[in-house]
Design goal:
Helix content: 10-25%
Radius of gyration: 12 Å
Number of strands: 5
Length: 83
């Protein structure tokens, strides 16, 4: 199982994003969770489309959507260096 945590700047501060790779036969998909400012945990999926990772859920706070490029870079570096 591939599972890791990364610090990514989102919403003006560093936040810990936790990733767990899901078994999906056709696509590469990670289940991701992160805490908001109140300590509530938010869940979403990150799916690889072509060569880029994209958040595949609507209704998330803007700071998560806006952090997608940083998440993409961090995930690619983690996978390249450690998996």
């Amino acid at each position: 199982m591939v599972q890791f945590s990364l610090l990514v700047k989102a919403g003006g501060r560093l936040r810990e994003f936790n990733f767990r790779k899901l078994r999906h036969p056709e696509n590469e998909v990670f289940s991701v969770n992160v805490c908001d400012d109140r300590g509530d945990r938010l869940f979403f999926n990150l799916q690889k489309e072509d060569k880029d990772w994209h958040i595949s859920q609507n209704g998330l706070p803007p700071w998560i959507i806006q952090s997608e490029p940083g998440i993409q870079v961090a995930v690619e570096e983690e996978l390249k260096n450690n998996w």
